[in-house]
Write a structure and sequence with these properties.
Keywords: Glycosyltransferase, Transferase. Pfam families: UDPGT. InterPro entries: UDP_glucos_trans, UDP_glycos_trans_CS. It is a single chain. The chain is an alpha/beta fold and 489 residues long. It has 20 helices and 15 strands. It has a 7-stranded parallel beta sheet, sandwiched between helices. A 6-stranded parallel beta sheet has the order 12-11-10-13-14-15, with helices on both faces. Helix 6 links the parallel strand 4 and strand 5. Helix 7 crosses helix 9, helix 12 crosses helix 13 and helix 12 crosses helix 18. It binds uridine-5'-diphosphate. The site of uridine-5'-diphosphate (UDP) has 19 residues, from helix 1, helix 15 and helix 16.
Amino acid sequence: SKPINNLHFLLIPYLAPGHTIPIIHMAKLLAHQPQVTVTVVTTPVNALRYRPILDKPGPSVQFLELPFPATEATGLPEGCESLDTLPTPDLALNFAAAVDMLQSELERCFETLSPPPSCIVSDKYLAWTADTADKYRLPRIVFDGMSCFKQLCDHNLYASKVLDGLRDSEMFVVPGLPDRIELTRSQLPVEFNPSSRTTGERLERAREAASRSFGIVINSFEELEQEYVNEYKKLKGGKVWCIGPLSLYTDIDQDNDKAQRGKIGSISEQECMKWLDLRERGSVVYACLGSVSRVNPKQLIELGLGLEASGHPFVWVIRAEEVERWILESGFEERVKDRGLLIRGWAPQVSILSHPSIGGFLTHCGWNSILEGVCSGMPMITWPQFAEQFLNEKLVVQVLGTGVAVGAQSVVHWGEEEKFGVKVKSEDVKMAILKVMDSGIEGIERRKKAKELGKIANRAIDEGGSSHMNLKLMIQQIRDIMNLNVFGG
Ligand code: UDP
């Protein structure tokens, strides 16, 4: 009989923009491949929000919309189906539990999926998808929206005893890495923090689920972190496919903006571009701390003052209400009106970063933001907040040499903002900005490196580029095991 060539990928993202957007891009990318069908599993509110990306011309991707569990079962407000729309951060665990409930919804309609799925690609946090995959005898691929650098740090820290008995502020070196990466425990993601048990258990489950999976897709490209990719492949026995930067696969400039209909910013993309058109080439700093981090208002004020003191024109994305009051009452907006553009709410980040007037990116070091900065050839000012962002900072500042740190010392835990005084000062922000925007030798070198990386990123996804080849390889390996299962038993 004939070998199986038609594949149906079921993609299951975690319900947060930083997790869903790259998976949708991956869906579009897969759908471009011959004999491949793709379904993205999500919920009605998210389907509405992200539909504009899928509706772009090109091969079709369908959404499977599972009803989000009811308020009585979750303790979440009606319609709150994405992590970034939680009214308070302490609901994050309720939210994670609600997402777990989607398992039974998915399995209820599994048999009706047509053609029958051949592979599940799931966000690493959705451990239950490994059980679903086992139940239906399908390979599961873990989607990790992070770098191999992060994977390797994670693995080595977990496998070693380097953290045993370490105080929060004590420096240590991450063992077994190609570079000497020094951190303190308080800069590590919560799973390495003994006081955060609940999250720890969740991650433990994710880790166990990953160990049962067929392989892992990484939203990165090999040239960015070649030594780390090699090491990580050795560790995983080869089934590691770097297929990014995924944001480059569609004309996301428009998609990204339109996909946020539920979250409209205070100014339109056109207005924003018009404002940037009037500035000098490479003169503007773009500052944005991501979609979910809740930054202490006192720290946001230092950020605003630092931007002001740098003397550079800037675009600043703000979301916190407390800082809004300060902006109005302190006269900040009035003082900077000639050179500061404030965006309240959602900014068209990718379009902004691609504008020639932008010369530096002040980022919280979320992985998508880092990649978007890399793709547009940006030197970066790094201000990590939580999760793996301090690791990402090390990669950018130390390994890639394209960033300058503002000097943040520790993760800010959600719900602990009150305890948190002013740590990073406006002076630190100003100095880091001046360094990155500087036209001396160091600044020029940094910019050159960043530009070069941007070019390499864009080549990786071209026909014959490393990410393109890895995608083909992944698809082939799935076809191979399908045929083995059918013909070889
Ligand atoms: N983003 C955006 N506009 C905003 C804030 C965020 O377009 O005002 C996008 C950003 O381009 C990125 C994603 O949201 O693609 C955020 O992901 P990231 O991993 O950087 O950080 P997270 O928000 O998950 O902490």
